Amino acid sequence: MIQTLEWTDQGVRFIDQRKLPTEETYVNCTTYQEVADVIRNMVVRGAPAIGVSAAMGIALGVKGSKADNVADLKRDFDKICDVIGKTRPTAVNLFWAIKRMQQKFEMLRVRPIPQIQQSLIEEAQRMHAEDIAINQAMGKHGAALMPANGGVLTHCNAGALATAGYGTALGVIRAAVEAGKKIQVYADETRPFLQGARLTAWELVKDGIPTTVISDNMSGAMMRQGKIGAVIVGADRIAANGDVANKIGTYTVAVLAKEHGIPFYVAAPISTVDLETPDGSKIPIEQRNAAEVTHFAGKLVTPEGVSVENPAFDVTPAKYVTAIVTERGIARSPYEESLKQLATK
Q1: pLDDT for position 306
Q2: CB-facing half-sphere around the CA of 220: CA atoms within 13 A
Q3: Residue 131 to residues 160, 237, 253, 310, 336: CA-CA distances in angstroms?
């Protein structure tokens, strides 16, 4: 299994996703500030992985605190959570993980500091293990939706690299292949950060799953030629009405799938469902550095002074979503009802 991130005696260890697929190198963080930088700079990315990373960063920060009383430790804890919380605004898993660690801290406030520190470390490790189990359960639910024999399109990377392991959308594909289905994956390259070309393709090739990389503007043509039987993507936040925030370009793929009568599935853990956000218009969309668009491999590819838009995500309205696969089952329209039922199970 790909080790996206792990807790070690030396710190939190991350595979550096910026250097894949040509280099498999790792970054070791010994402070919570370093974990925040890793999340912010996309050494690690993907909503579930960001959530687990946040928890481990908080645990690492508390472990390194010099506080000699619980009140001072709480002040340090609040500062750590604030820094981690400002790294990536769209992925709701980040805030879910912070809230879970906050609740754990409150339960532990009467304990000695060493016990608080150890319990928070164990909570972060528990979240890591739970995420893998959640993804495997999601895969079993979603495998039945995949074609027995045919092409499946995915956008961005929602695999082991975007989670603690196994993956959400790619977890469904993996489970379908394990069940004997003959799937040919088409991976959108996913500009401008190329998560599909660099990361999804790397994962699937390692697994021996047939994969073809296509540029983002090819998906409509592939659908029209009958090469795509289903689309499955991950999500960074799902609103209460079923609107889905995912990597920029997802909305385009969903509209094309609807036009061609192709099912469009979303795979995400319950922690990605945000019942407090009524619809997609309320989801904050992260704006990233213009250099990701103006430069390629460090070389300027646009005229100096040109204006650039670089939103990291877009919102796909629920009407384009055929079903949402979670670890607790599959939600279908009307999502206000089905998502609430699953989220409150």
Answers
A1: 97
A2: 7
A3: 10, 16, 27, 30, 25
Which region, left, alpha or beta, applies to residue 305 given φ > 0 means left and ψ of -120 to 50 means alpha?
A: left
Please tell me the distance from the alpha carbon of residue 242 to that of residue 286, in angstroms, as a whole number.
20
pLDDT tens digits for 185-226?
Answer: 999 999 999 999 999 999 999 999 999 999 999 999 999 999
Query: CATH for 5-136?
Result: 1.20.120.420
CATH superfamily of domain region 139-343: Translation initiation factor eif-2b; domain 2 (3.40.50.10470)
236 as an active site residue: the answer is yes
Most distant CA pair in the chain: distance in Å?
Answer: 67
Mean of all residue pLDDT scores within the chain: 97
pTM (2 d.p.): 0.93
Q: Of 188, 236, 243, 314, which residue is the catalytic one? A: 236
* Domain residue spans of the chain: 5-136, 139-343
Name residue 159's amino acid.
G
